[in-house]
Amino acid sequence: MAAESDPSARLAIALDTDDVDEAMQWARAVKGMFGIAKVGLQLFSAYGPDALEPLMRLGFKIFLDLKLHDIPVTVEKSAKVISKLGVAYMTVHAAGGVDMVKAAASGLNEGAASANISSPQLLGVTILTSVPMASSADLSARISILIEAGADGLVCAPTDLIRINSLVPGFVKVVPGIRRLEDSLGDQARVSSPDEALAAGADILVIGRPITASPDPRRAAEEFFSIVKNRSN
Ligand code: C5P
Prior knowledge:
Blueprint: E1 11-14, H1 20-30, E2 36-40, H2 41-47, H3 53-57, E3 61-68, H4 72-83, E4 89-93, H5 98-115, E5 121-125, H6 136-149, E6 153-155, H7 161-164, E7 172-175, H8 194-199, E8 204-207, H9 209-212, H10 217-232
Parallel strand pairs: 1-2, 1-8, 2-3, 3-4, 4-5, 5-6, 6-7, 7-8
Helix pairs in contact: 4-5, 5-6
The chain binds cytidine-5'-monophosphate (C5P).
Cytidine-5'-monophosphate (C5P) binds next to strand 8 and helix 9.
C-alpha cells in the first residue's frame, strides 16, 4: 500500500472498553487526528452494531477487529453480515488456513455486493503482539496463507515488519504494539515506538492504552499525530 499522505488515515484508536460512552469520549478526544476507530470483541460484545453507528457519524472509518477463526462456512456467513455494516476493515486469524481466509473474502464480497457498498479490506492477524516470540517459519507460513487466500493486508507486531516487508509488497500493514518510551507495555511483548514502526514499513498504527489510559488522551493523540505527520511529509 502506498503510504497515505493524510496522517489521520494512518492512525487507528483501539476502543477497548465495554462502555460506549467511554468509547465515544475517547473518539471525540482523538477526532481529526485519528481517522480509524478500532472496535474489538469487548465493545462489539456489549453493543453489537449499535457501537458502530455513532462512531461513523463522527466521521470515523471502522476497523472491526473480531479476529474470526472458525470453520470456513461459519466465517463466510459471519463475514457476509459484517460486510453489510459498512466497516472499512475486518480481521481474521491467518492461522485459520487458506480455505477459511478465502471464505472470509467471499463472504465480505457477497455482503458488500448485496448492500451495494464497497467491501471491507480483509486483514489477517499473523501472530499476536502479546506472543513473546514469532518464528520466521510461522510468520512465513501465515503470510503464504494470506497471499494465497487473497487477503488485502495483515496485522503484525512492529518487530516483525522487517522480516515480512519483502514478502508482501502490496499488503496494507496494520501494526499494534506501539509504545513511546514513557508508556507501559501492558500485555504487549513485542513493541516499537511509532517512529520505528513507520520506518519499518507500517501503513496504519493501532494505538490503545497509550491514549486511553493517559490522563490527557487528546494530548497523547496530538503527540502520535505529529510523529505520523512528520513522517508523511
Ligand atoms: O492498548 P494497546 O495499544 O496495546 O492496543 C492494541 C490493540 O491491538 C488491542 O485492541 C489488541 O486487541 C490489538 N491487537 C494486538 N495484536 C495483534 C492484533 C490486534 O494487540 N496482533
